[in-house]
Amino acid sequence: MLVVFFLALAMIIAYIEGGKISALSKITLNFSMLVPLALTILLISYIAGLSSTTFMYRLGQAFYIVSCLLITCFLVLNLQIRGAGIIALGLVLNLLGIRFWFLGDILTIPIGFLSRSVFGVGDIAIGLGLFTATRGLMLMRKTEFEDTARRYRPKHLARKTA
Questions:
Q1: What does R_g of the chain's alpha carbons equal in angstroms?
Q2: CA distance 120 to 87
Q3: Which of these ranges, 61-70, 116-125, 129-138, 147-156, has the smallest mean pLDDT?
Q4: pLDDT for residue 135 is more than 90
Q5: Where are the domains of the chain?
Q6: What percent of the chain has pLDDT over 70?
Q7: Is residue 122 classed as helix, strand or coil in its secondary structure?
Q8: Where are the beta strands (DSSP E) in the chain?
Q9: How many CB atoms sit inside 10 A of residue 72's CB?
Q10: Which of 13, 33, 112, 135 is most buried (CB neighbours < 10 A)?
């Protein structure tokens, strides 16, 4: 729920600053097929984690790690979006939180606020990255979208101009 809070805050602030929600649909993303693949693997990890057997729990953890790595790869391949690097850092911190307790969910929010009582440093980084990306994309102008698409398009996908 912390992520939803950061997204809503970014959209409200960007809208007040003159941004457009429709601008979010105009960004060109590289290797976007990694996201549904990662989300499918994440769903499998969640289902496996519900099992009471140790093997299935460990399998769920492995799937969670693979899912986070796929999303991190997607974000690194889309570093032209402001905030993508911060989100990737947050995911890496969450992955490290599996092994290092101080990076895990050790911070608390009063019960009832945002409906989640614990979060970690990685969650804060993901939220800040989403805030930065959402606000930045909503405030981009048409020429900036065209420049970004041209600048980060692989040469084999670039349109030939005469």
A1: 18
A2: 13
A3: 147-156
A4: yes
A5: 30-78, 80-152
A6: 79
A7: helix
A8: 107-108, 118-119
A9: 21
A10: 135
Question: β-pairing, 118-119 with 107-108?
Answer: antiparallel
Q: What is the pLDDT of residue 149?
A: 55
Compute the distance between CA of residue 128 and CA of residue 117 in angstroms, rounded to an integer: 18
What is the distance between the alpha carbons of residues 87 and 134, in angstroms, rounded to a whole number?
12
Furthest-apart CA pair in the chain: how many Å?
A: 63
pLDDT digits (tens, 9 = 90+) for 49-74: 777 778 887 888 888 899 999 999 99
Whether residue 129 is predicted with pLDDT greater than 80 in this model: the reply is yes
Helices (H) and strands (E) in the chain, counts: 6, 2
Query: Dihedral (C-alpha) 11, 151, 37, 50: value to the nearest 10 degrees?
Result: -50
What lies within 8 Å, CB to CB, of 140 at 6+ separation is 23, 26, 27, 148
Kindly indicate the confidence band of residue 28, based on its pLDDT and cuts at 50, 70 and 90. confident
Averaged pLDDT of the chain: 82
Token pair listed for 61: 């953890």
| Residue pair 139/27 in contact by the 8 Å Cβ criterion | no
Listed in sequence order, the DSSP H helices in 52-107 are: 54-76, 84-96
Lookup result for tokens 């947050």: 90
